[in-house]
Amino acid sequence: MAAPVGDHMPRRALRLGVAGPVGTGKSSLIATVCRNMAAELEIGVVTNDIYTDEDARFLRASGVLSAARIRAVETGACPHTAIRDDITMNLIAVEDMERDVGPLDLVLVESGGDNLTATFSPGLVDAQVFVLDVAGGGDVVRKGGPGIARADLLAVNKVDLAPYVDVDVDRMVAEGAAARGGAPVLALSRHRPETVDELCAWIRRLAGDHAAGRHTPTDPGAPAHHHHAHVRAT
Ligand SMILES: Nc1nc2c(ncn2[C@@H]2O[C@H](COP(=O)(O)OP(=O)(O)O)[C@@H](O)[C@H]2O)c(=O)[nH]1
Ligand SMILES: [Mg+2]
């Protein structure tokens, strides 16, 4: 069911960015959302990889959405640039998909995830989730970055692994909430259905607010200025 189109209703899908370092579980989170919400929302996915379409292939293989609803953007260089500074390729991918498969309610955009500080441009997504995992250690929340501090939702993922990596999830969540001025932090595991339900409830609320014109995108802020190492000819 696509959102109804009225005078004051946005016509396009809610665009939700999913950022965070490689391996924290972004593709798995997206597959889980699709599996749990495909009956109530029309969903599409855009992935960003540097040179491959691996994330898109993982999602196609998981069988949660038809192939036409999963698009891969191959960024060629810094993947964080394609979600923040030059968002053209991503905007084209989202718009082409909506044109090809019909109106959607939700488009999930996965970042290339090379960078702890990567954030999406508010010109590309309406809201963003930043994903960390407990295996990265409890300190990473305190070390921070704009995504951790100001994304719409911080997901502390793979909490099922916490006992094996000596991380205190309650403490990590409390430190996250403190670093975020009380903005939401979700302890998540795809193996814990009650946490998946919380994630889906958060997305459902956001999609409702977006459809009703009540949601205003906020910018977490640009990543810290950085240089790439110069490659020296030898
Ligand atoms: N134990 C556990 N493993 C997970 C969970 N979510 C994802 N993973 C695993 O973490 C690894 C990286 O996941 P992936 O979604 O590819 O991460 P991405 O690089 O951020 O997209 C894979 O081996 C997943 O099976 C979870 O909730 N619990
Ligand atoms: Mg991925």
Strand order, main sheet: write it out. 3-2-4-1-5-6-7
Report low-confidence residues grouped into runs of 5 or more: 230-234
Shape: globular
Main beta-sheet annotation: 7 strands, parallel
Number of helices: 9
Extended strand count: 7
First-last Cα distance: 58 Å
Annotated CATH topology: Rossmann fold
Name given to the CATH architecture: 3-Layer(aba) Sandwich
Strand and helix order: EHEHEHHEEHHEHHEH
Query: What is the CATH class?
Result: Alpha Beta
Helix content: 25-40%
Q: What integer value in Å does the Rg equal?
A: 17 Å
Proportion of strand residues? 15-25%
- Mean pLDDT level: 89
CATH superfamily: P-loop containing nucleotide triphosphate hydrolases
Structure ligands: guanosine-5'-diphosphate, magnesium ion
Q: In the residues, how many domains can be counted?
A: 1
Structural class: alpha/beta
